[in-house]
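Hi,

Apologies if this is the wrong queue. I'm a grad student, and the batch job for SDR family oxidoreductase from Tabrizicola oligotrophica produced an output file that my downstream script rejects. I'm not sure whether the problem is my script or the file. Here is the sequence I used:
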Amino acid sequence: MSYDFTGDAVLVTGASRGIGRAVARAFAAAGAKVTILSSGAGIHAAAREIAAETGRPVEALECDVTDSAGLARALASLERIDVLVNNAGLERITPLCDPDPAVEDIFRRITDINVNGTFLVTRHAAPKMAAGGRIIVTASIWSRVAVPEFAAYVGSKHANLGFTRVMAQELGPRGIRVNAVCPGWVRTEAAMLSLANMSRRTGRSEADLLEEIVGAQVLPGLLEPEDLAAPYLFLASDGARDMTGQALMLDRGEVMA
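Support response: The file is valid. Your script probably expects a header line. Output copied below for reference.
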């Protein structure tokens, strides 16, 4: 299925790599005017690469999503936003009983990016959105289930679903739809780092753990970032015009909820 977003202004956060980059590329290829935002300098290279791949201009904004004042300055350059993809996030292991003080710092940073950052970006973007605007939040299948030693990430993704539903109700009267995408295990840098940490803490090989993860899916194979792009386009399209406050599970049947 092909989509045409010509004339739409799309903002994707956390788009320097992984799912965000794949989604931004898909919107650009579909004709949208794409702006990507991330806290790292790599966002500029990502914009150049996406522009080269799609033949479409892509603007890069370097900003930390937890910095409200910085977001206000960064988004001031955008006249309007038709589609906002809240994808910026951090995934790290945070074992409850690990005595290392760094665990608490990591917990706070994950919560700050995944929860506060999602709120702040939406707070600054919403005034630039008119009736027909669409917001898509990247949640996770771990917003529906739980796994040990990922308290910050799992908790933040549960919060993302709550946020999606509240914003759907709050912005609905303005004609703005808000939905979430809940990916399963995807071959991203963050997911592979989590796999390595799980391997280190359990003493099991990464290959063994990955086989177990994929084995829990109804459909075989590990998802790639590009596999998730089309569902984001669908949620932003007229085909989903009657959907809001919903969570779309993209996990090859791992969690059926």
